[in-house]
Amino acid sequence: MSPSGYDNDELIFLEEDESQTEHTAKLGYWNVLVVDDDEEIHSVTRLALSDLVVNEKKLQFHHAYSGPEALEKIKEMGSSIAIILLDVVMETDDSGLRVAKIMREEYGLLEPRIILRTGQPGYAPEESVIKEYDINDYKTKTELTRSKLVTTIISSLRSYQQILTINQSRLGLEKIITSAANLLEEHSIKGFCEGVVTQISSLIGLDAGGVVCARAGSVLDKENDDGVYILGAAGEFAQYINETIESIHDSKIVSYVNKCLKDKKHLFVDKISVLYMNSSGYEAAVYLEISDEISQVHKQLLEVFLSSISVGYENVNLFHQLRNAAFRDWLTKLPNRNEFINMLDDEKCTQDAGHGSVVALIDINHFSDVNDGLGQDAGNNLLMAVAQKLQEEIGSTVRLGRIGADIFGLIGPEAQVNPGKIGELFITPFRAGDHTLPVNISIGLCRIGPDSCSGITILKQTNIALNRAKKDLNTNFGYYEPEMEEKTTWRLGMIRQLREDFAARKLQVWYQPQVDLVSEKIIGMEALLRWPSKDGGYISPAVFVPLAEYSGLIIEIGAWVLNESCRQVKELNEQGHSNLRVAVNISMPQFRDPEFVDSIKTAVVENGISPEFLELEITESVVMDEPQIVVDALKELKRFGVTIAIDDFGTGFSSMSYLQQLPLDRLKVDRSFVNEVMPGKTAFIAETIVTLGNKLGLQTIAEGVEKREQASYMLKLGCDEAQGYLYAKPMPFDDLLVFLEKHHQ
């Protein structure tokens, strides 16, 4: 059973009330083309999928009853078709396959997903069909139950949506690269800002007259350095160029532009957007007044666009100074990060012509130790020695830059830019002034191809690979894979949402009752953290607890769960349900917190409960992480009066020597061992754990008891307590009160 209370394979459909229907209509529909020569198949399909809602959009069915009719529909609708439910055998044995072949190869339609269905399996090998025609699924009609049909529809819609998004982003990024290149050729502030107006208008299809570009007036050498001036505009605002923004006599524009520059971030309010540009302190605000809100895709495109042109904006402000100051590293005289990004953009254009290359970032490990131990001069000498060696030995076909304090970048053919070639350059020590220093490096690499993004994105991707390489204990290099970025983005997004939801008090503490196996009386409950998701379900603790630990948020959340559990134990006592203990899970980051032990004592004392009614649950992996910290903390808390349990016992391969040192009261038999209990089979590990508990004088409790025979078997073994769906599911506190009252009666 999932944390949300539903089986994994149970489908949840949205209630079709008026507001939902109206909202769905605004979002549109998923177009599904059903191709089959049997009218009954069309009817059954519509009936089975009529209520399905995916991403707040319902399905809209279109029908064809032969191969030629299907091709007409496909040619007419094009990529707007999300899914084709395609019969293999119609007027001929391979009608469906011919439709798939023509659609993919002649029509060039790659986005629609195809689900082959056949009542006569065997006309085409399943594996070859799927590979050759880009088929999402291939099922016989008899095995396509409603549940399996819905599952494959949802999976195919996700694929379709991802392909559409990728194609749209690719086209947008191509336009951005072209736009940025044109802007970087303009050296006047006025011309540059007018170019920004024009390019943004082109990018998202706006009326150029509705856009104003403004920036602090100091760049125009005005006496009022704090003023905000109009640097570039179009349409009705063109007459105000080089004038203060107040000259427009529109308080709304003045207010929003000033707020954008003050807050240093984009501003989206109703149908007004002000985009923030910044590069090395040179700032600009681009004001847009549009007929509708900017879509999320356009926001993403604008973000990349503004990132690209921010470098150019800085350059035009510095044009009358030495140009090299903007593009050269002052120490090594190599191209700096800005120029390296331009070089990557150039290289990207070269890749479009069919030439492959690799970008690498080389990070000098522990470089700060050189500066701190030997002085900054020694550090500078080392950087110049590394730069010189790279220039002399890396090869004329490789371009070089200094990206950061101790990071160098390379762009060139993979034959020269690879971990082996780069590593050879750092085998011998470097001469840095009076010192000879060995240098260890980490390398991040990214292959550049026709599908690569802008230079700044390639650099970001290479940096992701570098960060991964620095964490790898087995090797000092790593190549970029899209999964790295996706996982990092997902993790950061989830952590941000968890922090926001915790601050908004959206997290919940649920309780699962625990019973005495002999009398089946309630003797306690386990506190379980629940995180509601936006779709009405719950995010699994297996997902969000590691994120909370990774971010350090687990300390705050753990303290809240502990205090909430103690408070509600007190409330249970006041309601007449006394002598019930509550078990709370504790993680390793909490043990590392210097205030952990005191926070436990404070929660018990301030809520006025007896320490014996609070039980701390720890896993074997926590014990083995830093055993002495855990043992010392638990011994002090044991003296205070709380009880201690080992959770999921038997799964962590812990050392028995540490187990004997722990002041334990209870062993919890993991549900995986309880599940082994079945007729005619001996649950050897469960029996061993119960026997061990009895030998050590500890209570034992079985987790995940769902069947009566499991309870009987564990009781026969000598197990003392149990928890599981046989007795009660986890429930909110109010439901627990009702449950206890009924159980008492």
In short:
The chain is 46% helix and 20% strand. By secondary structure, it is α/β, with parallel strands linked by helices.
Describe this entry's structure for a reader.
The protein is an alpha/beta fold and 745 residues long. It has 27 helices and 27 strands. The chain has an 8-stranded mixed barrel, surrounded by 5 helices. The protein has a 6-stranded mixed sheet with strand order 2-3-1-4-5-6, with helices on both faces. Helix 6 (146-183) runs parallel beside helix 9 (296-317) and helix 18 (554-574) runs parallel beside helix 20 (596-606). Residues 1-26 have low confidence and may be disordered.
Name some characteristics of this structure.
single chain, 745 residues, alpha/beta, 8-stranded mixed β-barrel, 6-stranded mixed beta sheet, 27 strands, 46% helix, 20% strand, globular
Blueprint (SSEs and pairs):
Blueprint: H1 18-27, E1 29-35, H2 39-49, E2 53-54, E3 57-64, H3 67-77, E4 81-87, H4 95-106, E5 113-118, H5 126-133, E6 137-140, H6 146-183, H7 189-204, E7 211-216, E8 228-233, H8 251-263, E9 267-269, E10 272-279, E11 282-289, H9 296-317, H10 324-327, H11 337-352, E12 357-364, H12 367-374, H13 376-393, E13 399-404, E14 407-412, H14 419-424, E15 430-432, E16 435-437, E17 441-448, H15 455-471, E18 477-479, H16 482-503, E19 508-516, E20 522-532, E21 538-539, H17 541-551, H18 554-574, E22 581-585, H19 588-592, H20 596-606, E23 614-619, H21 620-625, H22 627-640, E24 643-649, H23 656-661, E25 666-669, H24 671-674, H25 684-695, E26 699-702, H26 708-717, E27 721-722, H27 733-744
Parallel strand pairs: 1-3, 1-4, 4-5, 5-6, 17-18, 20-22, 22-23, 23-24, 24-25, 25-26, 26-27
Antiparallel strand pairs: 2-3, 7-8, 7-11, 9-10, 10-11, 12-14, 12-17, 13-14, 15-16, 19-20, 19-27, 20-21
Helix pairs in contact: 3-4, 6-7, 6-9, 7-9, 11-15, 12-13, 16-17, 18-20, 20-22
